[in-house]
Amino acid sequence: MPHYLRYIVTDERDFSLAALQDGLRAVDPAWTFANLTAGMPATAELHHSGERLASLELDRREVEIFKEEIAELIEIAENEPGAHQGVVLIALRKARALLAVEVHWGDREPEETRALLTPLFAWLFEHCKGLQHEDGVG
To answer: How far is the C-alpha of 58 from the C-alpha of 107, rounded, in Å?
Structure first.
């Protein structure tokens, strides 16, 4: 069963997979994107040191899948009250793009794969305003 991490982009600046690729490669040249497409949706396969870690898909607010995903995340947030519910709902409602990261576990333990993906989300948090969501984690 696929496992997804998502980054909900709220930044006013334009965001693209090409910019993400350039940013990650500036931090560590071992990051590579295979089969990068710039269409809608934009897609790529994320590799580090030759290992495939994830499939990426970037959708913008004018695309139907974006609208469906955001509506579903809003519904989840509305039904799970918590200390950060208001902040989450504001971010979801002002989202401009959605980066879906389908994790490829390979032969690695889940924690090892999560650790390998940490620089991806660290770069996103540093360079692009937004919110991270993980399947099954509120």
So the answer is: 26
In 27-115, the DSSP E strands lie at 31-37, 42-48, 51-60, 97-103
Q: Could you tell me which of 61, 67, 46 has the C-alpha nearest to residue 12?
A: 61
Q: What is the residue type of 135? A: D
Is residue 100 within 8 Å of residue 18, measured between CB atoms? no
List, for residues 42-91, the tens digit of each pLDDT value.
999 999 999 999 999 999 999 999 999 999 999 989 988 777 888 999 99
Q: Can you tell me whether residue 80 is helix, strand or coil? A: coil
pTM score = 0.90
CB 92 within 8 A of CB 70: yes
